[in-house]
Amino acid sequence: MKRYLSIIVLAAVAMTAGAATVENDFFRISTPDDSWFLTNDDALRPYGARVDIARVDARGATLELARIDYIEGAFAPRLYLTKQVVEKKDVFCRTATDFTDVYESRIAGYDCQSVQFKKTSNGYGYDCEAMTYNAGYGTFLIIMAHRSGNPSLVGRIVETMAYKFDTAPMTTAARLVAAAQQVVKKHHLPIGNNEHLSGVDLSPDSSTVTLKVTVPYITKENVNVPAFVMTKRDAWFRQAPEALKFNLLLAAITRERKNLRYLYVDTKGNEIGTLLIMPEEYEQVERLEAERIEREAKAREAAVKAQQEERARQEAAEQARILEEQRKAAEAAANAPITHVVKSGDSLTKIAKQYSVTVNEIKRLNPNIKSDKINIGQKIVIR
Fold it and tell me: What is the DSSP letter of 246?
């Protein structure tokens, strides 16, 4: 699913002696005591379903900021945060570094998923935090940053956020369908390849959810319906594992084992084709996904095992090399010539016994010795 941000007329910003308020169709934010906002006309800027808050220093460089996006469409917060922020799809995060693991936190009265990271801009370092959570059939993404070594104040402002729409948690397919119907009355939610979701319906017997998808690049007259539907089915099986985890409406449909019907129409409303996904096919997708996860786990295990075996092979080869060097050194030492210098009290018999050789062997190696008489200081070759 693509992130969708509606654009509406800029809301009026009310300024009073000690407070500032910004609001749009989605929420209201107040700054009850922070007079420094009043010195900067751009400190609170609404852009439809977005509000930017910024505080600058005397040179006009950003001290801290907060950006609050409301995205219509209920996405899984942890996955949305991972895709938009950690994977750097959001432009603010393109140059970010040092991401922490995603963790549980709380903002504006909501439990949310958060991640911290760092960013450098215009020579200044900033400590940043991004948070995301669901509010009704919508997802909030809040990004806050403040210059490293300076206090953060915008978090207090964000905590004042009040919602202007139903923010009851969406827990069932029926409630999600009802909420999605309200959204598509106002917006065409893009779902890829220039296609958009133009209708959502739950059948009277609650067994089937129909997603009406408008396809602008073909018409009923110029499409091979069987080939078109088969292409869509193939695409669904490729994309379903991620989509079912990412979008809460699809997740609820699969969890409650409802039929999922895609009704494709052209821009004139003519029906192009229908793709019906049965609960058994969810199970097939889940099985394929489980098999993929298992394959990847086995591949990781095999890679680790191969690394361990290679390390063991290298260690064994190194040990064998060391042992061979030791053997050669011992052999060389054993075969090295030995010379004895005769001292007082020595005799050939005593020297032969000292080196475990015979007198005859000593005489053979020392032809200059004709008798058993030897002299002090004389050098005798033992081997």
Answer: H
